[in-house]
């Protein structure tokens, strides 16, 4: 199973005269990781009741989570407590909280939190981390902070989860202050800590604070920055309009920049109208990956912004010759565990006509308002 040889594993499994809970759990886990969740589900349902334990339930829940079937993972958790009469362990709670976080279902998250409190579950480990992450991703950063502050035995993962939660809510100053508090309490930060705080600084325009964190990472904690950290600095400088400085930073990096970092700089050039740096960056990106349409589109839009229509035509002709198409814009909303995607001018959704009708009615002027205006 660990080698991904599921056919060999299944052949051996079928030959076994006697199977135990661990054997079933291994097969369920293997099928789920190889994206064959239907087979994993069938095996889980086929398990004898005597072999269905917390480990096998966790394997099925984790399999659903890995395959973005979040409601199904939640369903197994409720079956554990009810139909199967099992007591969820820390792994069970962490998995179900992760599923709820992905769904953004705050009510379910609060219910699991209540269950955790009723059972006096220790929050100093992964359950506390998952609880902070769940509240943050469900939009309740206040609850996340409440949980964080009430955990007495916090480790670096708890701090990382809270800093990351503040970052995704654009609370850069609070994230930076929390990082400085972390420094004062002598909690040793890791790579993830600095990705979180640098990202928070980028989204809040905190240039000085972001550069300070980067220097603390290198000089105080002797951590070697990775591509993600360098990318965050480029983002910090680019968002603040320091395009030339961001460009020099990339050139002076001790490791080669990837396409994500160059595209971050190109986006900043577009946002701040810096065509001088944008052109060579776009051409470099096209040389790196000529099949990726995003670089062409960014450059074309920038030319259009400057009214350089000959250059716009040149870029679009290049895209046609290389048979590249712009990836359409996409919006999505999650409703009761189901993700609904909507592409530009896409009518494939089952309720597209109903949605369109409702939008048309919303955009129609109110006759009473018009009457009053007349």
TrEMBL record:
PROSITE patterns: PPR. The keyword Repeat applies. The keyword Cell membrane does not apply. GO terms for biological process: mRNA modification. Keywords: Repeat. GO terms for cellular component: cytoplasm. PPR repeats lie at residues 20-54, 155-189. NCBIfam families: PPR. This is Chlororespiratory reduction 4. The lineage of its organism: Eukaryota, Viridiplantae, Streptophyta, Embryophyta, Tracheophyta.
């Amino acid at each position: 199973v660990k080698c991904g040889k599921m056919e060999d594993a299944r052949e051996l499994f079928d030959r076994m005269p006697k199977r135990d809970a661990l054997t079933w759990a291994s097969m369920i886990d293997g099928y789920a990781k190889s994206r064959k969740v239907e087979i994993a589900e069938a095996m889980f349902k086929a398990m004898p009741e005597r072999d269905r334990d917390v480990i096998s339930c966790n394997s099925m829940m984790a399999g659903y989570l890995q395959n973005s079937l979040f409601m199904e993972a939640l369903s197994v958790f409720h079956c554990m407590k009810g139909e199967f009469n099992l007591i969820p362990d820390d792994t069970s709670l962490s998995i179900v909280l992760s599923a709820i976080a992905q769904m953004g279902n705050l009510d379910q998250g609060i219910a699991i939190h209540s269950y955790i409190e009723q059972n006096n579950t220790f929050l100093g480990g992964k359950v506390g981390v998952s609880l902070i992450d769940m509240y943050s991703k469900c939009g309740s950063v206040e609850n996340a902070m409440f949980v964080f502050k009430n955990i007495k035995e916090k480790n670096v993962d708890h701090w990382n989860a809270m800093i990351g939660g503040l970052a995704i809510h654009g609370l850069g100053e609070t994230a930076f202050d929390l990082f400085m508090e972390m420094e004062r309490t002598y909690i040793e930060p890791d790579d993830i800590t600095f990705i979180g705080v640098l990202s928070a600084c980028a989204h809040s325009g905190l240039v000085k604070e972001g550069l300070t964190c980067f220097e603390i990472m290198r000089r105080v904690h002797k951590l070697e920055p990775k591509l993600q950290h360098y990318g965050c600095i480029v983002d910090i400088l680019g968002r603040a309009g320091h395009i030339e400085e961001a460009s020099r930073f990339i050139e002076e990096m001790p490791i080669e920049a990837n396409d994500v970092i160059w595209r971050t700089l190109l986006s900043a050039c577009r946002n701040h109208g810096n065509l001088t740096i944008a052109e060579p960056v776009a051409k470099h990106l096209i040389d790196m990956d000529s099949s990726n349409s995003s670089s062409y589109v960014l450059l074309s839009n920038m030319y259009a912004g400057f009214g350089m229509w000959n250059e716009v035509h040149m870029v679009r002709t290049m895209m046609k010759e290389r048979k590249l198409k712009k990836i359409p814009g996409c919006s999505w909303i999650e409703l009761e565990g189901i993700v609904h995607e909507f592409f530009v001018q896409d009518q494939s959704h089952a309720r597209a006509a109903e949605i369109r009708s409702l939008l048309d009615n919303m955009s129609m002027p109110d006759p009473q308002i018009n009457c009053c205006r007349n």
